[in-house]
Every structure is written in C-alpha cells, then in structure tokens.
Specification:
Number of helices: 9
Shape: globular
Helix content: over 70%
Number of domains: 1
Strand content: under 5%
Distance between the termini: 47 Å
Radius of gyration: 17 Å
Largest sheet: none
Number of strands: 0
Length: about 220
C-alpha cells in the first residue's frame, strides 16, 4: 500500500482547472491565428506547413507544466509524468484496445460519412518524419498533460466520481480534435486511454496508451495510406 501511495500523484490540484482553461484557450487562439495568417495550401500540407499547426498544440502541455511548477510540486509528483514499468504495461494494453475500438467505429461511421482525403502529403522527407514524430511522441505528452493531467486532477480534487471523470475527459479529448466525423471514435479512444490513467493513477500510463494509439496513424502516414 505504501509503495502504491508513493507512485500515485497527490491530491489537491485545484489549480488544474485554471491551467486547463488557459491551456485550452491558448490552443484555440493560436490555432485561429495560424489559420488566419497562413494561407490555405492548394493541396495536401507539406514542408513547414506540416509542423506549424503543432505550435498551438504545445500550449496544451506548456500551461499545465507551468502551473504544476509554480503552484504544485512539478509534473513528476503532481501527475506521475515519468512512466514506470507498470505504466508501460497498462498503457500498451489500453493503447491496443484504443486502436481496435477506433478502427471498428471508424469503419462503421465511414459507411455513413465517407472518409476525407488525407490533408498530409505522402512524400517522405524530414518534415513528414518530424510530423509523425510529434504525432507519436509530442501530442501524447501535451494532450495528456492537459486532459488527463490538469483537468483530471482538478475534477478529482472537487470530488467528481472517477467514472464521471473518465467520461468527461474522454469527451473533452474528442472535441479537442475538431473533427466531427471522428467524434465517436475519438470519444471511445479517449475512454480507453483514460482507463490507463484511472487504473494506475498516473499520466505516464495514459501517455503510453496515447502514443500506442497514434503509432498506427503515424505508420499509415509514412506509408502514404
């Protein structure tokens, strides 16, 4: 019991709510600025255009990190940021489940809403590799710090039941991606990824699950599928 208590992040994260709201708000403001100042490409995004949108994504993780450092005990103590052996085991399992449910729901939805063409180039170069690297490594860190870190910690602090927290954070995760055609699959994947956080009490596990989930799209992107 003592060992488990040392692994789990401490309670008392009321500051997680303003961290979530500020990070969420900056993400959308910066996204709108990028859309407004960066002309739409004629075809699939390529070159530097692949990475510019990720500038907004960085705020999802930087704001919770800053709040945790200034008002908490740091992301390692507050969120269980560094994955341990159990995080890898639980995270990989939940990530595989996330991939499966995402594929099943996406195939079902595609019968009603035809999938759109990929907005990303199929030409493999340094920019595309950087895009995939952020998709598999960067986004799981930033998005998990915001949703399963700051927001989850705040809801837990205010006594929201764990199952409700799981469903609410999954819903926020789904809307975060601004893709109505994938809303159902993203919600289901958010539940699977959040389950890793709920089982271990640590963001490290949900980051592994999220990275596992994003690995398949990353491979498809590199393969031009």
């Amino acid at each position: 019991m003592d060992e488990q208590r040392q692994q789990d992040p401490p309670a008392g994260q009321a500051w997680g709510l303003p961290a979530f709201l500020l990070g969420f708000g900056l993400y959308y403001v910066v996204s709108l600025l990028i859309v407004g100042f960066l002309p739409a490409p004629d075809g699939p995004r390529s070159g530097v255009r692949l990475l510019v949108p990720f500038v907004a994504n960085l705020f999802l993780g930087l704001v919770p990190w800053w709040f945790s450092r200034r008002r908490g005990r740091g992301v390692v103590a507050d969120f269980g940021f560094l994955p341990n052996r159990r995080d890898f085991s639980v995270g990989l399992s939940c990530g595989v489940i996330s991939v499966i449910v995402g594929l099943v729901i996406s195939m079902a939805v595609s019968r009603i809403i035809p999938p759109a063409a990929s907005p990303v180039t199929s030409h493999v170069d340094g920019w595309l590799i950087g895009f995939v690297a952020f998709l598999v490594i960067g986004a799981p860190i930033t998005e998990e710090l915001l949703v399963r870190g700051a927001l989850w910690g705040a809801l837990a602090h205010y006594g929201v039941p764990r199952l409700t927290v799981l469903l609410l954070t999954a819903l926020v995760f789904a809307f975060l991606h601004l893709d109505p055609s994938r809303l159902a699959s993203l919600f289901a994947q958010g539940v699977a990824i959040g389950a890793a956080r709920m089982v271990t009490g640590r963001v490290g596990a949900s980051m592994i699950a999220h990275a596992t989930n994003n690995l398949l799209p990353g491979i498809f992107t590199l393969a031009g599928i």
